[in-house]
Amino acid sequence: MTDTNAPKSVTLHDVAREAGVSLITASRAISNPGMVSEKTIARVRLAVEATGYIPNLLAGGLKSRKSLMVAALVPNIAVAQFLPTVKALTDALDAAGYQLILGQTGYDHAREEALLGTMISRRPDGIVVTGLIHSQVSRDRLRRSGIPVVETWDLSDRPVDMAVGFSHVKVGSAVAGFFLGKGWRRLGIATGDDQRASVRREGFLTTVGHDVPTAVVPAPSSLALGRQALADLLAKDPHIEAIFCSSDQLAQGVMVEARARGLRIPEDLAICGFGDADFAAHTDPSLTTVQVDGASIGTLAARLLLDRCRGEAIAQPVIDVGFRIVERAST
Amino acid sequence: MTDTNAPKSVTLHDVAREAGVSLITASRAISNPGMVSEKTIARVRLAVEATGYIPNLLAGGLKSRKSLMVAALVPNIAVAQFLPTVKALTDALDAAGYQLILGQTGYDHAREEALLGTMISRRPDGIVVTGLIHSQVSRDRLRRSGIPVVETWDLSDRPVDMAVGFSHVKVGSAVAGFFLGKGWRRLGIATGDDQRASVRREGFLTTVGHDVPTAVVPAPSSLALGRQALADLLAKDPHIEAIFCSSDQLAQGVMVEARARGLRIPEDLAICGFGDADFAAHTDPSLTTVQVDGASIGTLAARLLLDRCRGEAIAQPVIDVGFRIVERAST
DNA sequence: CTGTTAGCGCATTCAC
DNA sequence: GTGAATGCGCTAACAG
């Protein structure tokens, strides 16, 4: 009937009229078929076909207070490190009928705060953030919003709500222990300037027991910045033996620069990365790195959120997924 | 721990009461300050602070028919190839106050059709899809929805609405021409089984003038699949001279396998990838590949969508961003 | 400049 | 099983 190309979209009202039933019956036939007779369902289904009806989730969500959306904040979607998490999160949510709204904070706290505000205003059924939320304003707003929140890729004994991650202090400490166990004493760090990398550095220093030469590069780190970082570190200590890098990209840059300077890896210089990127096993030499199960983080975050949405009790609101050092040829 | 299940959120109504103004005045003070006196704005602003009000965009969108969301469909977010596009798109949209809803089709047409339905039901102000939409059902539904659509990473003279991409036939043809120009005659193709890669292959074959040995791997392609693909191709032609790979990941795998078999690159075997991934310039030897400006695709798609949202006329609804062969050491 | 009146499209009460 | 009201929270229209 209303087949004019006018932008007047067809609503449930049109479907109900077409099917000769009331609005609410049409609604139930579509989203709650158990409550309606087979015959009516068939009639409504035909009417949907005939009218080309596509439900308006916004309108439904307004009343039911369910948006079927989850907001995810990452520092930078182009940073490969968080991709497995985003992918696993998207897949798990999608299977439950939820979609992801993406936001990039750019490693910027002010930006994160603003973005959290926008996200809350969309009334998602859950919010996943990368890292811990440090801003008290944001923490308060999130709490008052009542929206389930999962902080990921880090751990806290006092999360806003829930958390899935691992201890960056322990990572730094473990790599330092690994280096020391190898007998290396002239150590160095090449690190991005983001929060979590800094914490890994602190863990490293604590275990080493003293400060070490450090090259800091702006996040997100990259191969090019890694080359620069090695130049930096060699200027600080020409006889440096082992370097802990805050990402595999950075480590790769350090390796490239090392080779360009005629340094042998690992004989002259040992290198450990972070993240176990897909290329880490295939560089030459292959890269020793800290492996983190980013996909699990995403899957677990989704499960926490979905459980919460179903009103189930959360047995364990803080989950440690751990990490492990994968030793390859670069050490 | 114990959260009240229904923390009745503060609404604009509360703000209006607190500020002693009417609902609509509060609304305007927040989202249309030009229409309200300075004094009133200040009063409302104070009330917002006092109540901790965060607007509900869903409710506003219902009436104003603007969701300030754009849906983006990619085959797989973990495939690095589309990341620059997603990033540029997110950034450009965010600057205009729009957020991105992400969907993954998994290179599956049925899944894409279903996902498009879900996305339409969220009434986004725009939809960006990767590749062309081939399903007639989807094309019709999109058209009827009246939502602006940008098809990306490909071109069509008959787009659903708008398109930003390049010709995959021409890419295949250009690489074939490049190979032939080098004097290579025993050619091969290692390709993912997705639509666009297949079209590149067809372009390649047309220019070569005859069929060539082809190893097909399931998308998304990877380094591991590349190793397999080379084994495949060598079985078909042990004296193959040059291979066109449908992704840099695949090309990297071919290179690794070639080296494992004692083949010299490019003397024994020349390799050309596709996409110019960040690692392509840093493999050993560095990888010749087809460079595409993925970020531009995202930026242009955002611009088209935003212009359309502002009701502006679109001068050029189909934009060709082109491509170029970056010659490196692998050829 | 400000307020009143109507809804946006649907789902949650209740009735029948 | 089905239906009639009622409003979710907000904003276009018009008024004043």
| Spatial extent as radius of gyration of chain A | 26 Å
Question: What low-confidence regions of chain A span 5 or more consecutive residues with pLDDT below 50?
Answer: 1-6
Query: What's the number of structural domains of chain A?
Result: 3
Would you tell me which CATH topology of the largest domain in chain A applies?
Rossmann fold
The N- and C-terminal alpha carbons of chain A lie at a distance of 73 Å
CATH class of the largest domain in chain A: Alpha Beta
**Which assembly state applies to the chains in this document?**
homodimer
The global form of chain A is elongated
CATH-assigned homologous superfamily of the largest domain in chain A? Response regulator
CATH architecture of the largest domain in chain A: 3-Layer(aba) Sandwich
Note the beta-strand portion of chain A: 15-25%
Question: What does it look like?
Answer:
2 copies of one chain form a homodimer. Chain A has helices at residues 12-19, 23-31, 38-51, 57-64, 83-95, 109-121, 136-145, 168-181, 195-208, 223-236, 248-260, 294-309; strands spanning 69-74, 99-104, 126-130, 149-152, 162-165, 187-192, 214-217, 242-245, 270-274, 288-291, 318-320, 324-326. Chain A has 331 residues and is an alpha/beta fold. Strand 2 of chain A pairs antiparallel with strand 2 of chain B. Chain A binds a DNA duplex (16 and 16 nucleotides) through helix 2 and helix 4.
Short description:
Two copies of one chain form a homodimer. Chain A is α/β, with parallel strands linked by helices.
